[in-house]
## 1
Amino acid sequence: MRIVLGVTGGIAAYKAAELARALIQNGHQVQAVLTAGAEEFIRPLTFATLTGQKVITGIFSSASPEATLASSVEHIGVAAEHELLLVAPATANAIAKFAHGLADDFLSTLYLAFPGRVVIAPAMNNNMWEHQATRANLEILRRRGHLIVDPDDGFLACGTYGPGRLADIAKILAAVQGNNRDFAGETVLITAGPTQEPIDPVRYISNRSSGKMGYALAEAALARGARVILVSGPVSIDPPAGAEMVRVRTAQQMRDAVFAHLDLSTVIIKCAAVADFRPTSEAKEKIKKTSARIALELDPTPDILAELGRKRGDRLLIGFAAETGNLREEARRKLESKKCDMIVANLVGGPDSGFESDQNEVLLALRNGEFIEIPKMTKREVADEILTHAIELKSGAALEQSSK
Ligand code: CTP
C-alpha cells in the first residue's frame, strides 16, 4: 500500500520512526508528513533515512522561490497518490482539527483532501484522552468511518498511569493491514454489477449498477481470509486480486452460475442489480428504425434471491434492496419474502450515494428485527461493516444450533 504517515507533536513521535520501519518491512511505501510540533520531538532526517523519501514538514515546504502550481498544491497530489492516511501519534489537537475541518498546516490540509481510508492512533495524557471534547471529536471521526486505534493503558510521560499511551506497533500495523481473519474457512459467493437483457444484437435492457459495492465486498472478504467466488455482470472495474471470477451477462446466466456454486458456499451475498424483466424474444437482426411506435414485450426474469431463500439450507443469505422510498418497510418486506438473514437497503437516486459513487450510506435490516444505520462512508468501509454484522449473525446461528 502507498501510505502517508502523519506524525504530530507528542512524546510518542519517536515511536513513529519504529512504525515507519515496520510499515516498510511489511512491503508498504511510506510518505512521512511531520507537523511543526512533531519536528520538536524528532528530526525529519530520521524518517527520510527510514523511508527513502523526502519528508514533508510544512505547508509551503516544497514551494521554492519559483514555485509551480503543482508544488503549491502538493497536498492534493499527495492525497490522490496514496491509499491510506495513518496518523500516529495523533495529538488531541490534531484530532480536534480533523473533526472540525481546520486546515492550517500540511497534515490537516492533506486530511481534508484525502479520499482514501484513514487510520488514527491517538496518544496523549490520560485526562486529555478522557476529556469530553476529545471523546466528542473522536466520535465524529468514527462516524466518518475512520478507524481509531485506541491507546493502551500504561505509564505516561507526564508521570501518571492510565489510558493514553500510543498503541503497540503490532496493533497499529494490524489495523492498517486489516489483519482480521474472521472469514478464514468461509466461502463467500458474491454477485455484483448489473445484468444485460438483449433486445437485438446491439441493444439491451440494463441498469446503472457499477459493480463497485459487490467488488468492495469481494475485496473485504478476501482481506479477511475468505475464499471468494464473484459472479459478475458486465462492469468496467478491475476484479479484486484473488477472487474466482465467473462472468455472466443475463439474469438467467447469473442464476445458473449462482446455483452451480451453491454447494461450495457458506455465505451468499446477492449484491447484483438483476434486471427484473427481459425481452420476451431477442431479435436475430438489428431492429430497424421506423417512424411507427413499437412495443417491447417483457417477461419477468428468475428471482435468484427468492429461489436461494428456498434452497439456502443453513448458509447465511444476504440480499440488497435499492429503494427510492420507504426504506425500512421495503427492507423488512424483502427480508421476509426472500427468507434472508440480512437485507442491505439503500436509497438510490440521490446525488452522492448509490450506483456510480465510491461512497454509500445503507440501512441493515436483520432477521431479529433490528435495524442498523451505516452512515455515509466508502463502499469498502461499508463492505467491512456488512461483513462484521454477517459474521456475528453466523456465530449467533452456530450458538443457537449447538444449544439445541
Ligand atoms: N434479485 C434477484 N433476482 C432478481 C431480482 C432481484 O436475485 N430477478 C435480488 C437482488 O440481487 C437483490 C434483491 O433481490 O439482492 C432485491 O432486489 P431489488 O431489485 O431491490 O428487489 P426486487 O425483488 O426487484 O423487488 P421490487 O422490484 O419490488 O423492489
Note: Residues 2-178 form a domain with the Rossmann fold fold (CATH 3.40.50.1950).
## 2
Amino acid sequence: MYLSTLEHYIGGAWVQPTSGKTQDVMNPSTNLAIGKLGLASKGDLDKALAAAQKGFETWRKVSSYERGKILKKVADLMRSRADEIAKVLTLEQGKVLAEAKVEVMGSADIIEWFAEEGRRAYGRIIPARADGVRNMVIQEPIGPVAGFSPWNFPVSQAARKIGGALAAGCSIIVKCPEETPGSPIGFVKCFHDAGVPPGVVNLVYGNPAEISEYLIPSPIIRKISFTGSVPVGKHLNSLAALHMKRATMELGGHAPVMIFDDIDADHVATVLHGMKTRNAGQVCVSPTRFFVQDKVYDKFVGKFTDLMKATKVGDGLDPTTKMGPLANPRRIAAMESFMQDAQEKGAKVATGGKRIGNQGNFFEPTVLTDVPKNARILSEEPFGPVAVMLRFKDADAALKEANSLPFGLASYAFTKDGKMAAKVADTLDAGMVSINHFGIALPETPFGGVKDSGFGHEGGIEGLNAYLATKFVSYLG
Ligand code: NAD
C-alpha cells in the first residue's frame, strides 16, 4: 500500500506545500518508502497563521453546545473510519494493528469527551464589597494554538491537543510528525467532513525546528502544546517564555514500577509484559525501571523473562504479531548503544539485547539484570522494549531510588498491602501513580508530569483549562 495523497490542511482546503522539499515516509517493518511528504515553506505557515486567526474569530462565536455537536460528529466519523486510519498508522509507525485500532477508537473517545466538557467551562461570581457590583470570573478561549505532536501515538497525541483546543473555542495549527503523516491526515479529514469551519484546524508538516521557531514567536499564536523529548521540550519552552506564550509540555519519563513481595508473580508479570511490549516500549509512560522486592524477585523475573522471550515480533499487519518494529532506525541505534554501554559496565542480559535481522527496525524484547548504577539506561529514557530489573529489600530505600531521576511522569506499584499502596502513592514524585493495574491516560483523567517530564495536563478538566484564559469582569449596575 502506498500513501499517495499526503497533503497539508490549511484554511479548510487540502493543499500541497510550496517549499519544493519532500521527505520519504518509510514502513518500519520493511524500511521501504511508502509515501512522499511535502514540507511547508514560510509562505505556507503564513497562510496557516492567517487561517488560524480567521478560524478563531469564527469558532469562538459558535456556542459550546454547537461546538460539542460538531465534535461528536468528528468522533462518530473516526469510529466509522477506524479500520482505514489504523491500517495507515500501522504501515507508517509499526505498532500492531490491534493497538492502532485501540489508538484510533481511544482518540474518538478523547474528542467525544472534550465535546461534552467544553460545555462546562464554568466561571464564577465573587461576592462584591459594594451594593450593585457583580464580580464575575469568565473563562475565554485563549486564542490560536500551535501544537507539536510526536510519532509514537500519531493520532492520539494530536487528538489531545486538537480536542482540548477546539472544545475551549480555540483554533489550532498542529504540526504532526513527518515520519507518520498519513494517520493524522485521516484523523483531520474527520474534522473537515464533520463541518468544522475553515481555519479552525490546520495541519502542517516540515522541518520541526523551522516550524516551531516560526510559529511560536508569531503574535497570532497564544498557546503552545508540545509532546516529545525533554531536550526539545526545554528548547521550545524557552522560546515560549521569550515570547510570553503559555505552554503545555508533555515530555519523557523513566517510569519506576514497585513490585512488592506480597503480589501474585505470574499475574503481575503478565500485566507488566503487556504494558512493556505495547508499541515496542516507545511510550512515555512505559514501565522501565522494575524495582522488585527480594523474596518475589526470582519468581517474578523468571516469569517476566519467559514472557518477553516468547513474544512474537513481526510486521504489525500480521495478526499473529504481538510486538511490531521500532518506529525508525534511530531507535535501533539507541537500543544498541544502551545495550553496549550496560554490558560493558557489567549488566547481564536475561533475554533479548539484539536487533532482529537486517530488514525493518525489529529489536528483541529485552530484560536486563545486575545493571550497575552508572549504566546510561538507568538515567536516560530507554524508549524501547527494554526492562531493567532492580532487586530491593527495603521499601524506603527503593522509593528514594525511584525518585532519584529528574523525570517524574508515570509510576506504578503492585502490592496487596493497602498501607503500602497509600505510602507509595504519597511518596512517588510523579505526575501519575497507578497501583495494581494500568489505569492512566483516559480522556477524563489528567495526564501530565512533574520535574523534567514537563508541566500542564492533557486529559481531564485540566486538559480543557489548558486552552482557557481567565478574565475578571467587575460590573456596577
Ligand atoms: P527528538 O528529540 O529529535 O524529537 C522528539 C519529537 O520532537 C519529534 O516528534 C520531533 O519531530 C520533535 N521535534 C524535534 N525538534 C523539534 C523542534 N525544534 N521543534 C518542534 N518539534 C521538534 O527525538 P526522536 O528521535 O524523534 O525521538 C526520540 C526521543 O523523543 C525519545 O527518546 C523520547 O524520549 C522522546 N519522545 C517522547 C515522546 C513522548 O510521548 N513524550 C514521544 C516521542 C518521542
Note: DSSP finds 14 helices and 22 strands in the chain.
